[in-house]
Amino acid sequence: MDVRHLPEFAFEHRMPIWWGTVFFMVIEGSAFLMTFTAYAYLASQNPDWPLSRVLPNPWIGSVLLAWLLISEVPNMWVKRRIKRCELNPTRIGMAVMSLVGLIAVGLRFFEFRYINVRWDSNAFGSMIWALIFLHTTHILVDVAETLVMTAMSFLSPLTGRRYVDLSENAEYWDFVVLTWVPVYLAIYWIPRWMAQ
Amino acid sequence: MTALLPLTDSSSYGNFLSPSGVSAQLVAQHSWWLIGICALIEIATLTLFFLALLRDQTKQANPSARVGYLRRPTVWIGVGVTTTVLILSGFVATSFLTDRALARIEGAEPYTHIEVIAHQWWWELRYSGWEGGAGFVTANELHLPAGKSVSLQLSSPDVIHSLWIPEIDRKRDMIPGREQSVQLMAPQTGIFRGRCAEFCGYQHAHMDILAIAEPPEQFDRWRAAQASAAPTPTGELPLHGAQIFSQAVCGTCHVVRGSDAPGYSDTAPDLTHVAGRLTLASGLLENNVVNLTAWISDPQHFKPGAKMTVNQLDPQDLRALVAYLETLQ
Amino acid sequence: MKDADPPLYDTDVPAGELAGRLSAAWSDSPGFRGWLSSVDHKSIARRYLITASVFLLLGGILSLMIRVQLSAPNRRWLSPDAYNQIFTMHGTTMMFLFAVPVMEAVAVFIVPLMVGSRIIAFPRLNAFSYWVYLFGGIMVWVAFFLNIGPDAGWFSYPPLAGPEYGAGKRSDFWAQLITFTEISALAVSVEIIVTVFKFRAPGMSLQRIPIFVWAMLVTSFCIIFAMPSIVVCSSMLIADRLVGTHFFNPAEGGDALLWQHLFWFFGHPEVYIIFLPAVGMASTIIETGARRGIVGYPLAVISIVSIGFLSFGLWVHHMFATGLPRVGNSLFTASSMAIAIPTGAQLFCWIATCWGRRVRLTTPVLFVAAFFLTFLSGGLTGVMLASVPFDQQATDSYFIVGHIHYVLLGGAVAPLLGAFYYWFPKFSGRHLSEYWGRWHVVLYVIGVNLAFAPMLALGVRGMTRRIYTYPDHAGWGALNFAATLGAGIIAMSFLVFTVNILRSLRQPRNAGDNPWDAGTLEWASSSPPPVYNFAYIPVIISRTPLWDGADAIGQVTGLQVQRKEVIVTRGLDAVPDLRDPVPTPTLWPFVAALATTAMLIGSIFKPSALVWGSIPVAVGMIGWLYPRRGKNT
To answer: Which residue of C has its CA nearest to A22?
Structure first.
């Protein structure tokens, strides 16, 4: 059996790295799931959940949600360009996504001021901060990765396998966006609905 | 230092397969079935395996043969799996039925209510009032009316403990922030040892509780006596001891109802009737003058890590203090 | 970026030169730096094995200290403080630093060989996981030697382990150790899954995957779904302790039982994470001993998969005494009993495999017999404990101590020792002595039964767990003495084992490529395997290719020889799909692991270390992933 004709790279499930990324997302997804479970459990154990009277103010979180959802437009676009191995559109797209990511990080730090309940005031505060902490690490990791990859894509000519890494990075951003939706609901709206 | 004196063995450490409580007996019966059938399964499986392993050792098997001698092996595996399923279903059913029977026992009308509060490393017992007297607090000895159901309200203010009196009933965890209410019944009179079963820190090993089951009339007499305040000491030595009790550190933690010591019954055992108890330090030492003296002087020798500190009293004061405590019948 | 030289394929070089050229391309650079930089799965697995053995020795010494203390009533050799640290460290070391890593170590060595690959997926991540594991273990043991070892049990129930009752830094070290071992275990799981998915030899379709590989695949999935739970709860615990959150504080809306749910949602699968690899090992040994593929292969695979699934539905049986609703408890009785069905099916498959064969009674096979002579007591006491009423009497007594040790020493360690004898020729090129091996088995079986059967009886007689001493009049002295004797005999069996290994290491490497006449691919390579595993990646047409005659294994050609290259195959049918350049050795995983260690230990003392500590970690990661001639990950 001769394999010299086989290609050196491909995208998505043909690549080991894609599976690696998927399983790390599964691991982190399970961590989110367990945190939500803990949240639901504590809410069920406390008849007066949310324990605080002042609840997190949702406006900046909603802006972030909108921003993250909109960011999927350039993200989808850049993913397609990456998979076609188009150098210049990829560079532009990566630069755009870096900027988008930095703004999202800025919004997140702004958002901290509107949580209105401290992590050490009660279990509700602890839970809220656990969720936002978990999600913030994901944003930070992906934005840092995007910045480094953007720099790399400008500094060195991209070979085929680099494009695979870039596409994994773009897919990870989907995960960051996707996880924000339930976290956002759990921080801002579920407590409001439960308080009524 | 006084040698550790063992408790005279009037109490049993408990064997949950030959118990005396009604609930524990039900569980024991169920357990014997489980153990017996599991032992049979173990013997059968071992026999099969060693037959398979050793039976053909002498045969000159053709080493390159791909097929063995067992015809239709999957059928035999199927038989094995089906047997397993049947036995396990039986186990699930009997376990469920036993649990139901236990639930029925626990539905009986209780004779009295007792709050059992587990502390690091002793037991606080709060008996509720009844027509013959007011409620009272005692420690480490759970008096029960034999043949009557009592309701226990379990709680813990510090870490997780678990109440286990093997011969009377199963374990119940005592978890801070959660109250659990259970009912138990000792059908026979006797002294049954119980202990904390959940790891709770340094002195988890020395957190025993004595369940003392007596005929109901005797139990009523006991609780009437417990409900009363401590007698005022008479005689020079006990009077001096009472003074020491309230002036030295004792009274800051321990309560003697009727004395002027300000203690709190939830920081340390209530000592109002300490002299009537069988043991000291949660079942660790037999309650006698020698042990009491040794315990007061150096609790850390017996229970390292316990909250009670070393007391450097001069011998005269110590004798007086012990004499006073001995009057608290 | 392409290499400067034109590609040189294995078909272009004379057969005699191929080995030399492959070695040149695949070997680590010499010297200490080269050693630190290695990404070869076999050298990393050897490090894992040696490290896990050291932790086994340390954990074993602790268990002997416990047994000496309990050998007679009223012993005061160890203070309660020392005793609590010792039993906590014993459990923590054995579970997190020995049992899980040692199974992974064997898998990291054997799985790539068994599926006919030259590498484990993500070799640099593999190096990183080892270093993180090593540093985590060193951290907690240094803390222990400094008398700040964790002392709240390997389960660390709050509030005892919480901020109010767990004073000092002790439980912080425990919680952070969990972070270290979880990072490591999760990374290895992903490596193993992707190795099995994408690096199988051409022809190894799903129904030709060896049982051990199936077992490791399911184990890795269990790790991926179970361990996030303990990552979450140990992070909550350390947050409660360090920054004042209230996850487990009932006074502020938290709940102590939340910990138990999260911990046992991990803790129960954990037992199967240790047990399933052992099942795979025992299956492999039985197949080779009976010289026959396992009978009922599909059933065996299905039972392994269903054990994996069911293990997630049993956690509440650790909490039957906490006062949860009765109906729920009964459901967990049923699910806990149900897991005995696939386990039973597995045992019957083995019996059927042996039936009618003249099984060669080698030391590995004898260890499978040892498994039957010890594990059954553990498994069947487990069935009893599934019953709520029985459990409420037996839980937290020495009955449980006896039960878990029967399960772990019988169900996991016995097959593991068998596997060690079985694969030792592959690890080292040498045989272990069968004579000493038989002594090892006999002493082990006697020791395990003598140590743990008395514990079952002690539990029935009311002896609770985790007590540092007990009074004379409890009547527990004789049984405890017997248990201590048993522990001593187990220790002796390991002494025999050590002597056996040391003797063997002085012998020449003369084991031969396939000393047991086994059927699976790891034996198609030499013993020990060359750094590139296979000069030609094999092409197979059966589950036991080595038993199908010399022509049954084909060869993959057309891979380059001047650089490290492997093929990636399709997940289901293992048809070659890509040629994959392999990452070169590098120091960066080591650097990243050091940075991670600094960050995690720093955060115990100053939570803000998580912030500033992440910068060196990021630098390490960038160095690791930065492209150098297209070779990374």
So the answer is: C190
Chain A neighbors (3+ CB pairs < 8 Å): C
Dist. CA B51–CA C345, nearest whole Å: 18
Cis omega (within 30 of 0) on the bond before C528?
Answer: yes
Does the distance separating the beta carbons of A144 and C578 come in below 8 Å?
Answer: no
Mean pLDDT (chain A) is 92
C591-614: pLDDT as tens digits: 999 999 999 999 999 888 888 888
Contact A16 C121 (CB under 8 A): yes
Question: Which residue of B88, B166, B201 is in closest CB contact with C341?
Answer: B88
At what angle are helices C41-70 and C123-145 packed, to 10 degrees? 20
Q: What's the token pair of residue B278? A: 């069988």
In the DSSP assignment, the letter for residue B196 is E
Q: What is the b/e burial string over C219-253, where b = at least 16 CB atoms within 10 angstroms of the residue's CB?
A: bbbbbbbbbbbbbbbbbbbbbbbbeebbbbbbebb
The answer to whether B304 contacts C80, with C-beta atoms less than 8 Å apart, is yes
Runs of H (alpha helix) within chain A: 16-45, 59-83, 87-111, 123-155, 160-184, 190-195
For the stretch C165-223, pLDDT in tens is 988 899 999 999 999 999 999 999 999 999 999 999 999 999 999 999 999 999 999 99
d(CA C592, CA B76): 54
The reported pTM is 0.94
Per-residue pLDDT 10s for chain B (329 aa) are 333 334 444 446 888 998 888 899 999 999 999 999 999 999 999 999 999 998 877 665 555 444 445 567 788 888 999 999 999 999 999 999 999 999 888 888 899 999 999 999 999 999 999 988 899 999 999 999 999 999 999 999 999 999 999 999 999 999 999 988 899 888 889 899 999 999 999 999 999 999 999 999 999 999 999 999 888 888 899 999 999 998 888 888 899 988 877 667 678 999 999 999 999 999 999 999 999 999 999 999 999 999 998 888 899 999 999 999 999 98
Q: Please report the sign of the dihedral spanned by the C-alpha atoms of residue B220, residue B222, residue B223, residue B229.
A: positive
| B180-185 vs C565-569, strand pairing mode | unpaired
- Closest by Cα among C573, C562, C507, C564 to C540: C573
Please name the member of C80, C299, C393 whose beta carbon is closest to the beta carbon of B166: C393
Separation CA C527–CA C530 (nearest Å): 8
CB C389 within 8 A of CB B95: yes
Provide the shortest C-alpha distance from residue C54 to chain B (in Å): 28
pLDDT tier, A13 (very low <50, low <70, confident <90, very high otherwise):
confident
Alpha-carbon dihedral C216, C222, C223, C228, rounded to 10 degrees: 170
- The answer to whether the CB atoms of A120 and C630 lie below 8 A apart is no
Distance CA C565, CA C587 (A): 20
Nearest to A152 among C193, C568, C627 (CB): C627
User: Which residue among C247, C579, C580 places its CB closest to the CB of A126?
Assistant: C247
Decide if C394 and B27 are in contact by the 8 Å CB cutoff.
Answer: no
Tokens of C330: 């009964």
So what's the ipTM on this one?
Answer: 0.94
Residues of A in Cβ contact (< 8 Å) with C574? none
Contact A38 C258 (CB under 8 A): yes
Q: Which of C272, C245, C247 is nearest to C260 (CA)?
A: C247
**B13–C354 CB contact, under 8 Å:** no
DSSP line for C425-484:
HHHHS-PPPHHHHHHHHHHHHHHHHHHHHHHHHHHHTTPBTT-S---GGGS-HHHHHHHH
Q: What is the DSSP letter of C95?
A: I
Q: How far apart are CA B293 and CA A168, in angstroms?
A: 74
| CA–CA dist A83, A12 (Å, integer) | 10
